[in-house]
Write a structure and sequence with these properties.
The structure is a homodimer. Chain A is of the alpha+beta class. Chain A folds into 3 domains: 2-85, Rossmann fold (3-Layer(aba) Sandwich); 114-174, ATP-grasp fold, A domain (Dna Ligase, domain 1, 2-Layer Sandwich), CATH 3.30.1490.20; 180-357, D-amino Acid Aminotransferase, Chain A, domain 1, CATH 3.30.470. Chain A is built from 12 helices and 17 strands. Chain A has helices spanning 10-19, 51-60, 73-80, 89-95, 98-107, 121-131, 158-164, 221-234, 268-271, 276-284, 310-314, 344-357, and strands at residues 2-6, 25-30, 42-45, 63-66, 115-118, 135-139, 149-152, 170-174, 180-188, 194-196, 199-205, 208-215, 239-248, 251-258, 297-304, 319-323, 333-341. In chain A, the strands form 3 sheets. In chain A, strands 9, 10, 11, 12, 13, 14, 15, 16 and 17 form a 9-stranded antiparallel β-sheet that branches. In chain A, strand 1 (2-6), helix 1 and strand 2 form a beta-alpha-beta unit. In chain A, helix 1 crosses helix 10. The interface between A and B is medium-sized, with 34 and 34 residues.
Chain lengths: 360, 360
């Protein structure tokens, strides 16, 4: 079986590495010249909406998936005429538009921070009366890693914030005083089989994920699973889905979902019996899903902008390094370190060391 | 860093898959046209003793290793003039000749079955008086997976056995009534750091490994580790080494060692914190070695000659499939299944299912 992936970055690379043992081969489509998945997959180089390349991809593979959610809808349409494309396009459409996404959450009884759609500065000013201060204004489309959003703390910030987003359609959300950010990595296969990983607790820096800690037996697990299940059933979802949540009191509030393998699930490579990458492939191929149990105490630290000396990382015998084969640039995710431990205390001690190495 | 590997089979493939996350890239040298490592590594196609290809390989990589022990000594010599080659050639020389190997065991105080070198039928007849019946006669070189050997149960078998081995220099060994076959997978790095995996209990069929079960806390662990340590220190060894042993009473008798990653260590991919493949790469690169602890109860079943339907394998959520991308032929190793379990009983139940799938 040959699997096509739109995008040739680290997620495609890690999907391919997880897929060879299942007997799969990979073709990625990416406009980039030196994409990091190309070491372990064939690459078609060109634009995501290049019709002849998309036809070539469809002819070469049995199934297509993608590693980022801003895939042009037209590309998915063209491909889907010829080969199965998972996750399904309705999931992509929802994830590409924060307003549709939030409306879907609301419809499914998945709690969210209060939100209002805004299409002008005047609407934004009016919306603030409903959502209250402080708030966050976010473009409806194209946002990722904290880009395309602005925090609003006082009235004078409204005009510059609106301008910074170039006046495109947006939503404004109440800024919820939350205790922690968590995500649930869930998988659903073409057969409808569904399974979740233990809840992950996430820490961001400047809008970019820095640190994930797996929390098996977390008291919020069942609420998160119920949300993910509702969402995946509604979308007739296939593949891995990551749902990002804020915890406020005993309630989880949905922030957004990603219709793909997700950075907050990278710990599963070493810390779970089956990685999110393998389970994504199993799901899109309709194969039985693998066990998602966590192994001991486990966490992930992102390497952003710089790669520490490999020997310094591995001197902790429970550190597992995952480099993406990318040149370091400021702010660029170039790898991550997964940690294993026998106890919470041991994990905390390891985390301290590794966060220092990672430049915290 | 670029790593060269002599041989492009499944061991090279699994080394490469384990090495990308460390930021490595791979070039394999193999005469074959459709070798299974070529999906995940560049290939130089040609003979192992092709001097210009060896020079090309040396120019392309920072270090060379190999996936089989019958590497021509001349190839290693040529390479070693230009790049580090690990495991070191003295280990290769020993592993390529059963007589040297057994003499080395004897010298290091590593118990072995009684053995005598034989160079003619007359010598074989004479040797039988020393080692006693039954016995096994094995060619000194080129044997693997039970090839190049014959069991001797009665005097009439001596002449045909000697003929079946084409009369090449051989050793005859006492056939020890052993309780079980085990192996110890050990790793030693360029820095001298050394670590072993939990003892593995192995079952062969027709001379080919069928099943390995990891035995953490085995009472024979320390004896096996002491043997491996003596051997690796003597050879100034670098990389993974597999030492195959028979247990007779409270004594382990060394059968042979392989200077490479080994089939009986494949369970470490899912069943140990760091796989033998990753630790081999760490060792040859002089990086700190990763933890070798077993995760729960774990075993490996080889797929030989046929690949069962993937969905039938994965329906057990604790089965982890490793296919090599090879066409099945009778007797050919085409993949393996690693099993995880929370208890001995669970592992036994899984093993029963998987052995049936694998054609037992």
């Amino acid at each position: 079986m040959r699997v096509g992936i739109l995008g040739g970055g680290q997620l495609a690379r890690m999907l391919a590495l997880a897929g060879y043992p299942l007997g799969l081969n990979f073709v990625v489509l990416d406009p980039g010249a030196d994409v990091c998945a190309a070491s372990v997959a064939d690459q078609l180089q060109g634009a995501y909406d290049d019709e002849s390349l998309l036809a070539e991809l469809a002819a070469k593979v049995d199934i297509v998936s993608y590693e980022f959610e801003n895939v042009p809808a037209r590309a998915v349409e063209l491909l889907a005429d010829k080969v199965p494309v998972y996750p399904p396009r309705q999931a992509l459409a929802m994830a590409q538009d924060r307003l549709n996404e939030k409306n879907l959450f609301r419809k499914l009884g998945i709690a969210t921070p209060d939100f209002v759609a805004v299409n002008s500065l005047a609407e934004l000013e009016q919306a603030m009366e409903q959502v209250g201060w402080p708030a966050v204004v976010k473009t409806r489309t194209q946002g990722y890693d904290g880009k395309g959003q602005a925090v609003l703390s006082q009235p004078e910030e409204l005009a510059p914030a609106w301008q910074s987003l170039s006046g495109v359609p947006a939503i404004v959300e109440a800024f919820v005083p939350f205790e922690r950010e968590v995500s649930i990595i869930a998988v659903r296969s073409t057969t409808g089989e569904m399974i979740c990983y233990p809840l992950t607790e996430n820490t961001h820096r400047d809008g970019v994920l820095r640190l994930s800690i797996a929390r098996p037996d977390d008291p919020m697990q069942s609420q998160a699973e119920a949300y993910a299940e509702r969402l995946m059933n509604e979308l007739d979802y296939v593949g891995v889905l990551a749902l990002e949540l804020f915890q406020a009191g005993e309630t989880l509030l949905a922030n957004e979902f990603a219709p793909r393998v997700h950075n907050s699930g990278h710990w599963t490579q070493d810390g779970a019996e089956t990685s999110q990458f393998e389970n994504h492939l199993r799901a899109v191929l309709g194969l039985p899903l693998g066990a998602t149990d966590a192994i001991g105490y486990t966490a992930m630290v992102n390497l952003i902008g710089a790669i520490p000396a490999v020997e310094d990382v591995l001197v902790n015998t429970h550190s597992h390094l995952h480099l993406y084969g990318k040149e370091p640039h400021p702010g660029r995710k170039v790898g991550h370190i997964n940690l294993q431990a026998q106890s919470k205390q041991e994990l905390e001690a390891e985390l301290k060391l590794v966060l220092t190495l990672a430049g915290e």
